[in-house]
Amino acid sequence: MGRAVGRLPVRSRILLGLSFLAAGCGVVAAQRPAPPTVPLLASLPAGKAPVLLAMAPDGKRVYGASADGKLTVIDTQARAVVATLSVSPFTSGIAVSPDGGQVYVTNLFGGDVAVLDTARGALGASLPLISSLRRGGYGRIAVAPDGSALYVANQGNRMMTRVDPRGGGPMAITPDMAPVDLAFAAGGRRLLLAGCKNMCVPGAVIPLEVASGDLGSTVFAGSRPYRVLASADGARVYLANLGGATVSVLDGASLAHLADVPVPSSPTSLALSPDGRRLYVASDDTGVVSAIDTTGNTVVGSARVGRQAREVVASPDGSQLWVSTETNVVLIASP
């Protein structure tokens, strides 16, 4: 070890010595303690990771779409898998209709949206998307609060597609960005597109006025935003940033940047408690779920659930979280 250190440049040796000195002065002790590993209330198989999750509006079902083309239906009260269906592999988006009657699933290389009729427990006719694409495929889905339309992001083609689930052809919308995720805000009057322009540092958010179809001005925030979520009251918008290991907080009306909250690396999913007081963040790399107090924009709790905490959804009362991991979908008490 002495020989290896001796070959370091002088600057590197000075920095290394300073790091030891800082440790001796208590700088390392100021770092956050590792989150505790929490007991699992349930652990259920749901196909090959990554598994995307969506919660039914009444909280009675959680739906998981896996990379190997399994659509898993979980009964949240029985804490058991009650059905497994086959969809196209490389799933890239999942959403539930506001009335809970349909589950929509996209896949990276497909040109349609798979539709599960939840009452029959069977797949119905798929919804066509625009298939004449140069590269890449479709990803995240946002469903209008009244169920009248789906919007599907396509990052690779710098576009998204609007689909009427009741019929009619798909319509392309081409914002000046590569949309990664979508979320409705302002009671469904506005759709927020989060993604990248150019190098994606900072990231970009563009609002779409749903009634007119007009795209607003670009707001720059975050670093490589991966997920976007608006609070139910429309007061806040949250971005999970892959590039900065942060959650950005924006004003819901103006989209002005308010704060950045540090979280563990690779935040890949966001979920709000029903009262909006807690924001839960799943961080894929570290297997940690963090709880953010949305009043003070600070992390107030965290829990380690295992490897690859990819997606998180909250129960209707906010007391429990379903999280997809490297091996299973697990249920934990909210941290």
Features:
single chain, 335 residues, mainly beta, Methylamine Dehydrogenase, Chain H, 2 domains, 5-stranded antiparallel beta sheet, 2 helices, 6% helix, disordered N terminus
CATH superfamily membership of the largest domain, which one? YVTN repeat-like/Quinoprotein amine dehydrogenase
CATH class of the largest domain: Mainly Beta
Distance between the termini: 42 Å
SS class: mainly beta
Report what the structure shows.
With 335 residues, the chain is mainly beta. The protein folds into two domains: 1-31, no CATH class; 38-333, YVTN repeat-like/Quinoprotein amine dehydrogenase (Methylamine Dehydrogenase, Chain H). It is 6% helix and 46% strand. The protein is built from two helices and 30 strands. The protein has helices spanning 2-6, 10-24; strands at 42-44, 52-55, 61-65, 70-75, 80-86, 91-96, 102-107, 112-117, 122-123, 127-128, 141-143, 150-154, 159-163, 171-173, 178-185, 190-196, 203-209, 214-215, 219-221, 225-230, 236-241, 246-251, 257-262, 267-272, 278-283, 288-293, 298-304, 311-314, 320-324, 329-333. The strands form seven sheets. Strands 6, 7, 8, 9 and 10 form a five-stranded antiparallel sheet that branches. Strands 15, 16, 17, 18 and 19 form a five-stranded antiparallel sheet that branches. Strand 20 and strand 21 form a beta hairpin. It is globular, with a radius of gyration of 21 Å. The two termini are 42 Å apart. The model is unreliable at 1-31 (pLDDT under 50).
